[in-house]
Amino acid sequence: TSANASNQQKIEDGKTYYNQNCVFCHQADAIGKPGFAPSLSNAELLAISSDKYLAATIRDGRQGTAMAPYAHIGKEKIIAIVAYLRSMETLPHRSSEVDKQRTAQGDARKGELWYKDICSTCHGPQGDGYLSGSSGTAIGKPGFLNKASDGFIRETIKYGRSNTRMLPFYGSTGLANLDEQEIEDIISYLRTLNK
After folding, report:
1. Is 48 left (phi over 0), alpha (psi -120 to 50) or beta?
2. Distance between CA 129 and CA 195 in Å, rounded?
3. Could you give the count of Cα atoms lying within 13 Å of 92 in the half-sphere of its Cβ?
4. pLDDT < 70 stretches in the chain
C-alpha cells in the first residue's frame, strides 16, 4: 500500500536524520552508551513512551544535561526520527494506558530515604545523572519531570529497562524488593525536585 511505502520512507528518512544528529551520543542503532547517553531503542522505553514524549524531548532537549534542544532541525525531521525509533519497537505499545495511570500517592519524606539509599547510586544525589559523574540519567531535572507521567516513572522503577543498568526494583524478583507504596513514595519525592 502507498501508506506503508510512505511510512517506510519516513523511517528511512528518520534513520538518515538520526545519523546526522543523534548517533554521536546515542550510538549506532540507538543503543546508547552507559554514563553518556541513554538507549533509545530499548524495548521498555519505546513501549511506554508516546510519540509526543519522544518528539518533545528531541525538540526541547533536557536542560542541565548534555541533551541539547534540536528544534532547529524542524518538526518533519523530528517526526521522522521518532518513526525510526518506533520501527525498533518489540513490545506492545502502551503509552496511552501508562500515561493515564493515577498520580502518585506517596510520602515524599519516605521517598527521599529510598531515593538516597537506592536510586542516587546511579542517578546522583539530586537526580543530576551523568553530569554528577553517575551512570544513570538525570531524573531530577525539569526536562525529564515535566515530560514524564507518574505512570512512566512507575513502570520504569517496577520493570526497569533490559540491556541497560536500569534493573527492575519491584517485588521479590526486583533488585530492591520495593513494594507499591515505596514506589509511590519515590515518585512523590522526585516531584519535589522539580523546582
Report:
1. alpha
2. 17
3. 4
4. 1, 195
Q: Return the number of other C-beta atoms located less than 10 Å from residue 53's C-beta.
A: 18
**Amino acid type, 33:** K
| CA dihedral (103, 51, 42, 133) positive or negative | negative
Q: What are the two backbone dihedrals, phi and then psi, of residue 32, each rounded to the nearest 5 degrees?
A: 75, 180
**How much is the pTM?**
0.93
Q: Which amino acid is at 98?
A: V
Q: Can you tell me which residue has the cell 519525592?
A: 189
pLDDT for the residue 195? 66
Cell numbers for 133: 559523574
**58 contacts 70 by C-beta, under 8 angstroms:** yes
Q: Judge contact between 15 and 26, C-beta under 8 A.
A: no
